[in-house]
Amino acid sequence: MKYITNILSYLLISTLFIILSSCSWEPSHDNPSDPHYPPYQAFGSLQLAIKTRFDAQPIVNATVLLTLEGEEGRFGVTDSSGIIDFNELPEGVWEVETFRENSEEIIYGRDTIRVSIAQGIPVDTFMQLNALPIFTATRVNSITQQFEANTDSVKSFIRLTAQVHDPDGAADIKRVEWKLLDIMQGELTFQQVPDSSYWWAEISSEAFESRSIVDAISLPFNFTAVDEIESYSFSEPTSFHRVINGIIRLEGSSFDPQPILDWYYSEVSFEFQDSTQFHYRIRIIQIENFPPTLVYDTLLTPTSNRASNHMVAKPLSSGRHTWEIWVEDNFLNSSRPWPSDMTVP
Question: CATH number of 43-129: 2.60.40.10, 3.40.190.10, 3.40.640.10, 3.40.250.10?
């Protein structure tokens, strides 16, 4: 009997083995860490440092955008160290774009790189952004200039001035352009002066062809600053509002280390409603030695009289000088006579 029982057990086990061998079997994969778990996806991380192109300093509050096809984008801003971290990034080649705009501080242009993210491999990299040029001042003025003494030979032109600061260094500014609507455009010239540097250009009356300089009054001039990598920024529109036509007549000066200068301005009532709308700028230039040196530059509030005089407030060095008096309004539009010679004993 025992023998028969053993035979039956063997046959049962063999049959069960055959049945199981003929069946395919797959585990449940219900563990989230199982690579075959249905929602599972390989994740990596990215630490990104944003620095300045000029001197590799951290950029705070820079915006960083991450995109990967088929995935929800990521975004954030850099911290006080110029760093931002992204975790649980699906594997793939992510596009990383960063910039800093709409800031009261320095504006940094957009730049883009691609970063490969792989499972369990932290990526640590950096980007350097280009600072955009900043217009600190722009000005458009009309200037009427006398080209010969005691004559009516005068010429009007427009002077454009732009002061531009580039956080990446002054040498990074490649050019500064100007444009007057669709009428004309050009580039400004770099000029170095003792205390600062600026860009300037002059538009002569001939450049307007059939138009007059007066036609440009109140029209917007727009400036564009371009750096070495062709990033650019725009100024606010700037315009001028007056052309001063009348020229002061220089009457003469006394022969004295502190000379008295006399002049006559016949156009006071014609050019301005009252004397609060303009002033006189008195300039004396020493020409005894080279280069000529501006030794006196002062503003004088006009009186109601057309004839005026002024005693120079400090003694001048002996030698040859020239002096001139500009009529200048409150927006620095001016008319300028031909300079007069003066010798100080």
Answer: 2.60.40.10
